[in-house]
Model the fold of this input.
Amino acid sequence: MQYQKLCEVYEELEKNPSRLKKTEILAEFLKSIKNEKHHEIVYLLQGRVWPDYEEKEFGISTQLTIKALARATGKQEEEIVKKWKKLGDIGEVAAEISKTKSQHTLFSTKLTTYKVLENLQALPGLVGKGTIDKKIGLIAELLSCSSHIEAKYITRTLMNDLRVGVGSGTLRDAIVWACFDKEDKEAFQKVQSAYDKVTDFALVFNKAIKGKHELDKIELSPGQPLKVMLAPKAESIKDAFERAGNEKGEIAIEYKYDGFRMLINKDEKGEIKIFTRRLDEVTKQFPDVVKYIREHIKADTFIIDSEAVGYNKKTKRYTSFQHISQRIKRKYDIAKLAEELPIEINVFDILYYNGKSMIQEPFEKRTALIHKIIKNNKFHIQTAHQLITSDEKKAEEFYKQALKDGQEGIMIKKLESPYQPGTRVGNWLKFKPVANELDLVIVGAEYGTGKRAGWLSSFDVACSDEDGKFLDIGKVSTGVKEKSEEGTSYEELTQILKPLITSETGKKVKIKPKIVITVDFQEIQGSPSYNSGFALRFPRFTALRTDRSVHDIATIDEVKKLHNKEVLKRTY
Ligand code: AMP
Done:
């Protein structure tokens, strides 16, 4: 397919802010590509060139893109930088200078989606001597034969910033509209559930074209990342019983461990792979966990769901997520760090066992299975502390004990419920002491002055709406440390955020939304200054959530609920 045709779709999407209209445009386009041999074009619609579970990055900075533009168009780098400073969007810059390309590029062949995918997919594989030059070469090859709108979207794709407003919800709906009836509720559910198992919209589209029975055939496979099941909040323990109790009024209650999620897989070859909640593979960072798994789980193949929680070696007290978070990203001295910051795996679910998916089985049965196959060994690996009861008082005591043991609260689970990857539907609930705390994503920042000169020192944070659009809610500066010995420092955050800068105006920068932080605050106020309609009062940075992605941040609904609660509290 001609890339130009896809770019026309991007333009349409960009022009139409309404989600319904976007779904219509996408559905029409998907219908038109049903007979294409490859459905990887679907990734391009998302501004990607791989499935969502794939962690690969292009590794292309704005500077490198500018060099590629210069090579492709014959323009001076300085001239391009000047335009970038003026326009702020490197995509617009690419479009503008491509309109006036030098003569030698006029006789170019038409760019295909296949060629764009081929060149962009090749970028991360380039390593060793001359890598930068080769990368520039691959990009320049595309840019030198592209029209101005093609140049705009190639550049934006490279910057992971397509700006056409296609979230995963819209794409899912468009696949249903293109392959089934718009009113077919079952089709929505089947498409979503297939996506949650494989996190690959091209594959889901491919199956959806062939019918629901093909979607049903999509199964879990150990070794492949998948979206974990999540839990909305319970208002109280009583509320949890009402929402999750079975006929006998029973629920399962577990400690809500304050660590990070680990989905642990063993495939047919016996290989162990560990994924975080944001689908990053972290097996190499956790040789201790691999060892515990090999020694304490009796099964040929499995996918288990668990929480890794840190503890103090000397006092044997559990520690918070913050304390062990550096283990997720560490690339060197791994064994030493594992010694210093030991973790215990608390297993609370099993999704796949000895060649069979378990997700349709009731929770009670899955729990019984993990108890059967896991040999508990405190401070290494164990099944999550659990109570099955219909007695509210006992539940209350269990909750208090969880807090005394240094954990966050409790999880409440419906005994008969299936495991639903990627959903937050209420078969699980979480309950913890009321905290004014939200996970938010950094979307912008400002350079500091004085002793913070050269560092980003104030951070614009955002929540999201249901389609993944980011909505500003405040600026955070306090809580970040001056020195790295004291915790996450301005310097560290600056280093992490700098490669994600998409535009700069004076001291202010816009940042590609990727880095999730926990922010606590005194209250939420209605505010016209931010496009969420709300502002955090006295926000304070408390943790860098390296285990979470933008899909995990607070939604505008959560913000509204917290705000309403505060208003209520003040009224009574
Ligand atoms: P939250 O991060 O507040 O949305 O709470 C959900 C998280 O709690 C999950 O993603 C897990 O990482 C964590 N968690 C801790 N203990 C459990 C448990 N027993 N069952 C399920 N999730 C748990």
Summary: Residues 103-107 have pLDDT under 50 and may be disordered. Residues 231, 254-257, 261, 277, 307, 348, 384, 411, 430 surround adenosine monophosphate (CB under 6 Å). The chain has 22 helices and 19 strands.
